[in-house]
User: Fold this.
Amino acid sequence: MAASGGGNVAGIAKGILERLGLDKHPMDMAVNKLSGGEQAKLALARQLVGLNGIDVIFLDEPTNHLDIQTTEWLEDFMRTFKGAQLIVSHDRYFLDQVCTRIVEVDNLRAWPWKGNYSQFLKQKEASEASLGDMINTIEKKIQSTMGALSQMKRANKYDKSISAKHKMIERMQQELKALRARMPKKRKNLVFSIEATDKGSMDVLMIEDGTMTFEGLERPILKKQSLEVRKGDRIGIVGGNGQGKTTLLKIINGDLKLDSGVFDLAPGCEIGYFHQDHATLDFSLSPVEQIEKLRPDYQYGDIRAALGRFQFSGEQVTTKLSQLSGGERARVALLKLLLEENNLLLMDEPTNHLDMDSKDTLEEALINYTGSLITVSHDRWFLDQVVNRIWEVDGGNVKVYYGNYTDYVRAKKGLPPLAEDEISEI
Assistant:
C-alpha cells in the first residue's frame, strides 16, 4: 500500500482499508495469509490509494466480494475521480451508477454506446429493431426485383434493363450482407422456468421472538425477531458482511436451530435451496450423472435435452463438476432446482458467476414463479427486478421494507415509492 499513495498514504490507506473491512487485521500481516476475497479487496484498495497521482484507472470486476454498503461507497468514491476509468463488470447497477459510456464486446468486435448500462440496453434494442427493419426492406426489394427480372426473361425482353437489374440486385445483396454483419449474433439462451408445487397453504413460515447467538460473537445474530412469509412473497435479504444473512437462510432450511423463540414451517412447504458455493451438488459427478442421481426415471435423451436447455453441449456434459467453471456449476444447480419439487426457494447469491443474458433469464423465471422466494443477494439490479419485500439485517435486528431495492433505498432516505414508469435518480 505504501508504494501506491504518495504523500498522505497512511491516512488515505487507513480510511480505505476500514471501508473495505480489512482494518481488523494487523497492518504488518503477510498478504498470503488473507483469504481470496480479502486479497481481491486489497488489490482494489491499492489502486484507490493512488488515485490522486494517475490519469486513468483499470478495474476488473471491482464489486466482487463487496457487500452493498461498500459497493455504494465505491461508487461515490469513483464518481469523485477526475481521470478516465475503464471497468469490466457484470454488476449492472454499478455500471448504471458509474459509467458514462459502454463498450460491448461481441463477435470479435467492440460496439461503443453512449450513456450508462440502462441507456445502452434501450439504445441497443432500438438499434437492432431499426437494423431488422432495414434488412427486411432490402430483402423485399431484392425479391421484388428478382420477380421483375424473371417476368422480363419469360417475355424475352433481353435489353439493357436486364443488365441494370442484375447490377441492382448485386448491389442490394452486398448491402444486405453488410447489414447482416452489423446485426449481433444471438447466442443460445438459457431456457429456464420453475414450477411451484401446489401443496402449501397461504401461510408459509413464521418466526416469533427468534434469537440466535454464535459462540465468540459479542452481538446476537438474531435478537427476539418476529417474521412471516406468505405465498407469493419474494423477499431479498440485505445487510453488511457478517450480519447473518446466510445464517437466516440456514435457520429456515433447518440446518441451524434457534436458541430461543418459535420457528414454524407450514405443512406441505417444500424447500429448494441454491447455495452460493453450490453445496447441493456432488463435485465428483458429471452434469449427466448429477441429473441421473436426482431423476433416475429420466432417460439419457431426456437428460441431454434438459442440459442442452441450460447451454451444455459436447464434452461438458461428461466433465466432472469439479473441473467446470463457477458459471457452469451454477447452471447445473439451477437445473437441479427446476427438476425438484418445491414451493419455497432459498437462494444465496444466485446471480454469482452468471453472464448477463443468464441473469435476465433467471430474473424472468423467478418473476413468474408462483411459490415464495427468499434470496440473499448483493446484486441490486436483480433485487430491483425480482423482489417485492426487503429484509434488512443489522445488529441482530431484521427490519422489513415493502417494495424492491429502489423502494427500500428511497424509504431509507424518507422518499415515497416511485410512481409507475417514473425513473429513479438516486
